[in-house]
């Protein structure tokens, strides 16, 4: 039998180990608190985070398109400030009270900003998307902290890498108690001053979005005809980045950027046919319209079933007469004709940035155009021909600026300070039409508005030139009526063009009814802006 003294020693040793184990658990618990960021050597600092700041997508004038709003956040040290003082600023006082009663430093959302003190530090943190979202199809959206579409995706690394959190670091003793007398290290992120500078003008972008809101489905593009810079680019319907589920389930597909999708073109392609006619010395070509034009066993009708009679090119453009342009197309050199269309951008993609690439559309081959019916369709923009609003706008720029095809641009460059752009590239351009030819084309486009008493495209504050389309699609609704795309593309001012405006009304019917009023509103609103 063991002696009673031995039992006592055993009990004493056991109690010692239990006490040691309890103290170890206590220290382990302190070390696991999520709010604390300690050095590996010793627990001497605590860092509280108020929120992240990411890079900004700017318009051409360094006006933010993202990070447009700010929220106020603050970091509090309960031992240095009363709850009554915090309550004055708190968005959610009851939540702040719970955090306050824990006695540990914490961050909370504020209704207003105040003065910093030992126990309270305020931060103004940019909100990625505010209440009013502009250019969502260009900007794109974020999921789980990563860019998924648009410029958010294309410049994800620049907009989010090296992101610095807004934070306060305090000295602590070994138990995590704040040593307020040692001061605090405050970091205020300036990441929002860096980012991507676009060519967009936020004022023009808003004009496009407001005017285009009448389009159930469609697209609007405004560009600078001299520089090829996209000033406004809007797709309809739009979508809400805070409710992507609704956008994905919408049968009108609001998530797609219709500026980049190809559609049947229609009568605006008559500008290309007229251009090649002028190039081949056919500017005085006279054509007869009897309301119908026969090519083999195919009949092509004019929208005026009575016919337009004998007309020259300018009248045929104003009348948008299919038979005239079919007969002109039959006279043209097929190789040169197709090459002109290609040089004007048809059948070629337009790269704006990573992930923002215009469809090439469809440009019929020479062999396809040797089929009489296909050539007839091609001459007034029907058949297999398709193009994007971006391509049509780029072609319009070439006509408006004297014959230089300038590749459209969306990006100016990168900024590190929110006030300057680094490594901005010059626009790429090539001559595709003679200046004399473009003068004749512009004259015809001006006449298409002002020599047509039914035109709904004429602005009230400036003269402009434009051409409309009503493009057949071969798609019919439940009533058996064909769904046509309405188009208009044009420039202003008429005397010295500076801007090109292209509007697509997908399944919108007549271009003069659906697209022309949008064109007119955009031009007038831009003139008011100037």
Structure summary:
Helix content is about 30%, strand content about 25%. It is an alpha+beta fold.
Can you lay out the helices and strands and say which pair or pack?
Blueprint (H helix, E strand, L loop, with lengths): L3 H28 L13 E8 L3 E3 L10 E8 L6 H5 L5 H9 L4 E5 L9 E8 L8 H4 L2 E2 L2 E2 L2 H5 L1 H5 L4 E7 L12 E4 L7 E4 L3 H10 L6 E7 L5 E7 L7 H6 L13 E2 L5 H10 L7 E3 L2 E4 L2 E4 L7 E3 L1 H7 L2 H8 L4 H10 L6 E4 L2 E3 L7 H4 L2 H8 L6 E2 L1 H12 L3 E3 L4 E5 L13 E3 L3 H16 L14 E7 L13 E8 L6 E7 L5 H4 L1 H14 L1
- The number of strands is 26
Mean pLDDT over the full residue set? 90
**Class computed from helices, strands and strand pairing:** alpha+beta
DSSP strand content = 15-25%
CATH class of the largest domain: Alpha Beta
Q: What is the count of structural domains? A: 2
Number of helices: 18
CATH superfamily of the largest domain: DD-peptidase/beta-lactamase superfamily
CATH topology of the largest domain: Beta-lactamase
The outline comes out as: elongated
The CATH architecture designation of the largest domain is: 3-Layer(aba) Sandwich
Determine Rg (CA atoms, Å): 33 Å
Largest sheet: 5 strands, antiparallel
Tell me the span between the first and last alpha carbons.
107 Å
Low-confidence spans? 23-41
Q: Order of strands side by side in the largest beta sheet?
A: 12-11-26-25-24
């Amino acid at each position: 039998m063991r002696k009673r003294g031995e039992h006592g020693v055993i009990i004493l040793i056991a109690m010692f180990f239990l006490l040691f184990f309890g103290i170890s658990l206590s220290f382990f618990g302190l070390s696991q608190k999520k709010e604390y960021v300690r050095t590996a050597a010793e627990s001497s600092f605590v860092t509280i985070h108020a929120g992240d700041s990411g890079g900004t997508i700017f318009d051409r004038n360094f006006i933010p398109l993202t990070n447009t709003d700010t929220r106020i956040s603050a970091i509090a040290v309960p031992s240095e400030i009363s709850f009554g003082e915090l309550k004055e600023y708190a968005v959610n006082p009851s939540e702040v009270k719970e955090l306050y009663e824990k006695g540990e430093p914490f961050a909370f959302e504020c209704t207003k900003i105040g003065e910093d003190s030992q126990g309270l530090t305020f931060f103004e943190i940019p909100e990625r998307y505010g209440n009013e979202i502009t250019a969502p199809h260009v900007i794109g959206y974020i999921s789980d902290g990563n860019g998924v579409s648009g410029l958010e995706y294309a410049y994800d690394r620049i907009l989010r890498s090296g992101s610095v959190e807004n934070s306060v670091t305090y000295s602590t003793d070994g138990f995590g108690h704040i040593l307020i007398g040692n001061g605090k290290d405050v970091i205020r992120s300036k990441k929002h001053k860096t980012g991507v500078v676009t060519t967009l003008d936020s004022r023009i972008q808003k004009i496009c979005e407001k005017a285009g809101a009448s389009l159930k489905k469609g697209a609007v593009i405004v560009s600078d005809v001299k520089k090829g810079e996209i000033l406004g680019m809007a797709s309809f319907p739009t979508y809400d980045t805070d409710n992507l589920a609704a956008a994905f389930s919408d049968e009108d597909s609001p998530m797609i950027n219709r500026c980049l999708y190809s559609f049947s073109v229609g009568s605006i392609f008559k500008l290309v046919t007229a251009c090649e006619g002028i190039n081949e010395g056919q500017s005085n070509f006279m054509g007869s319209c009897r309301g119908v034009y026969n090519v083999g066993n195919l009949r092509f009708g004019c929208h005026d079933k009575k016919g337009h009679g004998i007309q020259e090119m300018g009248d045929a453009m104003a009348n948008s007469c299919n038979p005239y342009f079919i007969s002109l197309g039959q006279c043209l050199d097929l190789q040169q004709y197709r090459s002109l269309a290609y040089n004007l951008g048809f059948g070629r993609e337009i790269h704006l940035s990573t992930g923002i690439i215009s469809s090439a559309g469809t440009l019929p081959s020479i062999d396809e155009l040797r089929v009489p019916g296909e050539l007839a369709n091609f001459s007034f923009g029907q058949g297999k021909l398709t193009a994007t609003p971006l391509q049509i706008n780029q072609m319009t720029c070439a006509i408006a600026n004297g014959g230089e095809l300038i590749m459209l641009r969306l990006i100016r460059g990168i900024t590190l300070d929110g006030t300057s752009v680094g490594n901005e590239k010059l626009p790429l351009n090539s001559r595709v039409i003679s200046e004399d030819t473009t003068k004749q084309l512009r004259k015809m486009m001006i006449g298409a508005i002002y020599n047509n008493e039914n035109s709904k495209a004429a602005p009230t504050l400036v003269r402009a030139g434009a051409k409309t389309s009503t493009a057949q699609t071969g798609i019919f609704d439940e009533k058996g009526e064909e769904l046509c795309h309405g188009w208009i593309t044009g420039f202003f001012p008429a005397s010295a063009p500076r801007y090109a405006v292209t509007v697509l009304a997908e399944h919108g019917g007549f271009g003069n009814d659906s697209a022309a009023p949008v064109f007119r509103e955009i031009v007038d609103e831009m003139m008011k802006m100037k």
